[in-house]
Amino acid sequence: MTTPPQQLHIPVLLSDVLALLNPGNGERYLDLTAGYGGHARRIIDRIGGAKYAALCDRDDYAIDHLADLAEHGATLIHQDYLSATRQLIDDEQTFDMILLDLGVSSPQLDQGDRGFSFSHDGPLDMRMDRRQTLTAADVVNRYSEDKLIDIFRNYGEINIGIARALARMIVLRRRKQRFDSTNDLAEAIRIKIGELDHGKYHKVHPATQAFQALRIEVNDELGQLQRTLPLLSRLLNHGGRLAIITFHSLEDRIVKDFLRDRSDGLDAPYTLLTKKPIAGNINDDSNPRARSAKLRAVCKK
Ligand SMILES: C[S@@+](CC[C@H](N)C(=O)[O-])C[C@H]1O[C@@H](n2cnc3c(N)ncnc32)[C@H](O)[C@@H]1O
């Protein structure tokens, strides 16, 4: 049994993922967002060994926590999943199951120095891959006002009036003083939004959507997904299963449209395994991330 040294991240929709991927002894598994191996460890138990698994993550902290699986024969790939997919295609590798569990891990949110969250003060960083140069501080302190408006609109789904006001506030404030910390930016956003809606009570912090938008931009999250999805059928054997977990509507729309288009008609490469997405448990207090999760899956014909 492959168990992690400590559970840093609780895998979401684990039993549904196992039911859909339906791992068989000796089958090959590719986890493109392996994180702390929550899903991978259970799948590895079913396929009969880590040697049948390739585990990718762009975060060095996650990769370090998969070392025990590497010792048992798993292949670790410290890359973004688009580059990993291209490399595996070039190497003519194929798999029976592929999992994409998108978004951030609990350690990324919980460790202040990663700069993803305003619940823990830290530098405005938000890089999943710390070898990358672009940080959230670069976006906030250097991007043009128009580009900031686009990011807040398109990646935060913030209404245009508020997106414009936030971008203006950032541009004016940074002339005097750069934004360097998550709390500093979150507080400036909270004050600005409070002025606009006369201090209306918000169930979630008003900066939540702006932080989501910045994170998506820094990590090119939607671009990675859009460019990777069309490549995955080349890595799957016939009868191979692909499962994807999303955490917000922008990702889910991309996945839903893609899987529907590729599962429709006689020439389509896939059969849909989930007519409707399987939703995470909205009452799961032990794992709040699960509340917004949606799982979709297909099988290659
Ligand atoms: C939700 S966590 C995955 C958790 C994992 N399934 C588990 O049970 O431990 C998402 C992981 O995907 C990684 N990730 C997100 N986007 C990525 C990308 N484009 N390429 C590679 N890894 C990515 C993050 O660094 C994070 O560790």
Number of strands: 8
The succession of helices and strands, N to C, reads HEHEHHEHEHHHHHHHEHEEE
> What is the 3D shape?
globular
Mean pLDDT across every amino acid position? 94
Overview in brief:
Strands 1, 2, 3, 4, 5, 6, 7 and 8 form an eight-stranded mixed sheet that branches. The chain has helices at 14-21, 38-47, 60-64, 67-71, 81-90, 106-110, 136-142, 145-156, 160-176, 182-196, 208-219, 221-228, 249-261; strands spanning 29-31, 53-56, 75-77, 95-101, 236-246, 270-272, 278-279, 294-300. The protein folds into two domains: 14-107 and 222-300, Vaccinia Virus protein VP39 (Rossmann fold), CATH 3.40.50.150; 114-219, DNA polymerase, domain 1 (Orthogonal Bundle), CATH 1.10.150.170.
Structural notes for this entry:
The protein has helices at 14-21, 38-47, 60-64, 67-71, 81-90, 106-110, 136-142, 145-156, 160-176, 182-196, 208-219, 221-228, 249-261, and strands at 29-31, 53-56, 75-77, 95-101, 236-246, 270-272, 278-279, 294-300. The model has no long low-confidence stretch (mean pLDDT 94). β1, α2 (38-47) and β2 (53-56) form a beta-alpha-beta unit. 43% of the residues are buried. The protein is built from 13 helices and 8 strands. Helix content is 42%, strand content 13%. The protein has 2 domains: 14-107 and 222-300, Vaccinia Virus protein VP39 (Rossmann fold); 114-219, Putative methyltransferase TM0872, insert domain (DNA polymerase, domain 1, Orthogonal Bundle), CATH 1.10.150. Strands 1, 2, 3, 4, 5, 6, 7 and 8 form an 8-stranded mixed sheet that branches. The chain is globular. The site of S-adenosylmethionine has 21 residues, from α2.
